[in-house]
Amino acid sequence: PSIRKFFAGGVCRSNVQLPGKVVVITGANTGIGKETARELARRGARVYIACRDVLKGESAASEIRADTKNSQVLVRKLDLSDTKSIRAFAEGFLAEEKQLHILINNAGVMMCPYSKTADGFETHLGVNHLGHFLLTHLLLERLKESTPARVVNLSSVAHHVGKIHFHDLQGEKRYSRGFAYCHSKLANMLFTRELAKRLQGTGVTTYAVHPGVVSSELVRHSFLLCLLWRIFSPFVKSAREGAQTSLHCALAEGLEPLSGKYFSDCKRAWVSPRARDNKTAERLWNVSCELLGIQWD
Ligand SMILES: NC(=O)c1ccc[n+]([C@@H]2O[C@H](COP(=O)([O-])OP(=O)(O)OC[C@H]3O[C@@H](n4cnc5c(N)ncnc54)[C@H](O)[C@@H]3O)[C@@H](O)[C@H]2O)c1
């Protein structure tokens, strides 16, 4: 049990309660996102589960409602692999909510075979980075109207092996599904860094998170990882344990001066040199805007 405790990582120690606060979490029908949603609902927030499959979302939401006695757990359709769906979600949300205090960009895909999103983006880059980039852009005014507000981006320790290949961003010349995931997680880091810079003085802050090695559906595309996760299961975090760093970044008081930083086990963690490169961060921002056809100064 003590080894188990060691690998469980840090625990979010914040006592902040959230009555009257509004939260959006992407991909919160399973895994880390679902457990993050459960805890935020327990603290009284109105929680929007933004997910691809509304039926699966409803099943998670009814479980969370029953568990937390919070009826304000709502499900809305969001497919990050389709910018039309992202725009429709944002439009619906902005029409029904006057405030947004916490946005958790949690959804992700890992090691899927080469495929493209509805808009023709390589899937890892399209879902993990560009989808959340567009979503944040569309919801930013609400966040700014609801300060203090936070954006939490789920990255990964895998960002250390990622690289941004501007000459082959979509992996059309060379594709490795393992590296494609790492590149997209580096993009999450660079997005957080650049976003923090651009949000200075607005009251909206942002953080990147490595949740740990967590038992979830993320590894479903890789037989080898499924096997490894099983063999090493005593050292793999539960989804609840994996949610702690997201919760810490969403809730901990006094975190504002650390906007743009990277956290693991509820504390600052080491960032790869590539994820500290301001020029790449700025260039990726501009290229992302171009790909999505948006203006975001
Ligand atoms: N599990 C780990 O060990 C681990 C490690 C490092 C980082 N992460 C990150 O944590 C986050 C959560 O992952 P998880 O482990 O809970 O995995 P998970 O597979 O259980 O959850 C990911 C969620 O994203 C959703 N999703 C996938 N594609 C989507 C799309 N196109 N539109 C909307 N939603 C979509 C899935 O339906 C699912 O609900 C991911 O960003 C992942 O990269 C996980």
Topology readout:
Layout: H1 2-8, E1 22-26, H2 31-42, E2 46-51, H3 54-68, E3 73-77, H4 83-96, E4 102-105, H5 123-144, E5 149-154, H6 177-198, E6 204-210, H7 223-231, H8 239-242, H9 244-251, E7 262-264, E8 267-268, H10 278-292
Parallel strand pairs: 1-2, 1-4, 2-3, 4-5, 5-6, 6-7
Antiparallel strand pairs: 7-8
The total beta strand count reads 8
Question: Can you list the ligands bound to this structure?
Answer: nicotinamide-adenine-dinucleotide
Give the SSE string: HEHEHEHEHEHEHHHEEH
Amount of helix = 40-55%
What does the largest sheet look like? 8 strands, mixed
Overall geometric form: globular
Describe this structure in words.
- 43% of the residues lie in helices and 13% in strands.
- By secondary structure, it is of the alpha/beta class.
- The protein has one domain (2-292): NAD(P)-binding Rossmann-like Domain (Rossmann fold), CATH 3.40.50.720.
- α5 (123-144) links the parallel β4 (102-105) and β5 (149-154).
- α2 runs parallel beside α3, α4 (83-96) packs parallel to α5 (123-144) and α6 (177-198) packs across α10 (278-292).
- The protein is globular and about 50 Å long.
- The N and C termini lie far apart (50 Å).
- The mean pLDDT is 95.
- Bound molecules: nicotinamide-adenine-dinucleotide (NAD).
- Residues 26-27, 29-33, 51-52, 78-81, 106-110, 127, 154, 156, 210-211, 213-214, 216-218 line the site of nicotinamide-adenine-dinucleotide (NAD).
